[in-house]
Design a protein that fits this description.
three-stranded antiparallel β-sheet; 20% strand; six-stranded parallel β-sheet; globular; Rossmann fold; 2 domains; 38% helix; binds pantoate
Length: 285
């Protein structure tokens, strides 16, 4: 496995691999690899001849009061894990290498980037789409892999790839969960022991919403009210950014669980103390 720090070196390697006819898979990450990333790497290994991952904590997707500085970083641990999984190359650039000192261009997927997490984290998705497009231009892969835990991110990246005619297939991988259902995320490590125990309530709420729809409740506003009540009753929940029902393909809001929807995305962002967790589930109607 090779660790590449420079954009030009990465491009040279990609060109050589492409000339040889290899199929290239790419898993973009911000490092501190967990089971969710490992699962995406395994999917890429199955589909492709050569697998790249990137490790880059992207400053432009963090707000001024967010956790950019304290975001967990451990390249030694990450490279050992990646090597064990058979990753061929890690692209590990510095912020200076990626943005220089005069970066001006940002990529925006209109509307989709302003709802749900975008409403509560202004500029976040512009940061994500900008870095992802830059990475796609450097790592010219055939397929790129994203986890469904960040469902809105995955839809926005798919839309960007379609709108900008990118020659890359966006593949989504399932949310990987702890035993109690908590979605695995690098941010779970910020939780205190008590917050961690209580954080499972997020997945319980998604399951509760699913049960209510399956038991015939059509008014999603009613379900939302019950779920918000349950979350607010938990003393480890500091606040709820949103709990919403959306069309899984377009992210348009859904108010009634009509049969015309094949599935309904239930998605939430909830603060446990200083930690913001997101999760989602597609409910079959
Ligand atoms: O999902 C993430 O880890 C990041 O948002 C991504 C896609 C690597 C862009 O920085």
């Amino acid at each position: 496995m090779e660790i590449i720090k420079k954009i030009n070196d990465c491009k040279l390697i990609i060109n050589r691999l492409r000339e040889k006819g290899y199929k290239i898979g790419f898993v973009p990450t911000m490092g501190f690899l967990h089971e969710g990333h490992i699962n995406l790497i395994r999917m890429a290994k199955k589909d492709c001849d050569k697998v790249f991952i990137s490790i880059f904590v992207n400053p432009t997707q963090f707000g001024p009061d967010e956790d950019f500085k304290k975001y967990p970083r451990d390249i030694k641990r990450d490279s050992a894990l990646a090597e064990k999984e058979g990753v061929d190359y890690i692209f590990y650039p510095t912020v200076q290498e990626m943005y220089g000192s005069d970066h001006k261009t940002m990529v925006e997927v209109k509307e989709l980037g302003k709802i749900m997490c975008g409403q509560h984290r202004p500029g976040h998705f512009e940061g994500v789409t900008t870095i992802v497009l830059k990475l796609f231009n450097i790592i010219d892969a055939h397929k790129a892999y994203f986890g469904q835990k960040d469902y809105q991110q995955m839809i926005i990246i798919k839309k960007m790839a379609a709108d900008l005619n990118l020659d890359i297939e966006i593949v989504s991988g399932p949310t990987i969960r702890e035993r109690d259902g908590l979605a695995i995320s690098s941010r779970n490590r910020y939780l205190s022991a008590e917050e961690r125990r209580n954080a499972a309530i997020l997945y319980e709420c998604l399951n509760l919403a699913e049960d209510m729809v399956k038991n015939g409740e059509k008014e999603l506003g009613k379900i939302k009210k019950i779920i918000l009540g349950k979350l607010e009753d938990n003393r480890f929940v500091k606040s709820v950014d949103y709990f919403e029902f959306r069309d899984p393909r377009t992210l348009e809001e859904i108010k009634r669980a009509d049969k015309k929807y094949k599935g309904i995305l239930a998605a939430a962002a909830v603060w446990f103390g200083k930690t913001r967790l997101i999760d989602n589930k597609i409910i079959k109607v």
